[in-house]
Design a protein that fits this description.
Structural class: alpha+beta
Strand order of the largest sheet: 1-2-3
Largest sheet: 3 strands, antiparallel
Distance between the termini: 20 Å
Shape: elongated
Number of helices: 2
Number of strands: 3
Length: 89
């Protein structure tokens, strides 16, 4: 990444945040024609769905959400290229 660009990004505290969208535990719906996903399922969190069946279900999630069990998806650094150094710890 260009050193001047990196400096500006660091000066403004630019950060690639942990979200369901970049978590290895998320299974997100297919992107629509506008490239939007929004919702999917967490593959490690479950609940008993009381409203319809009272059966065990994977937790519905939003791609912009976050939980303490986040684990960076294995390919995130490759996808981010030079921005990877700005990933949230």
């Amino acid at each position: 990444m260009d050193a001047n660009k990196l400096k500006v990004l660091q000066d403004i505290n630019y950060t690639i945040r942990k979200t369901c969208g970049n978590c290895e535990h998320a299974f997100l719906n297919t992107r629509d024609t506008k490239g939007i996903v929004d919702f999917g399922l967490c593959t490690i969190q479950f609940y008993n769905h009381e409203k319809h069946t009272n059966s065990k279900r994977e937790l519905s999630i939003n791609e912009y959400g976050y939980c303490s069990k986040h684990k960076w998806e294995y390919n995130t650094k490759n996808v981010l290229h030079g921005f990877a150094e700005l990933m949230e710890k």
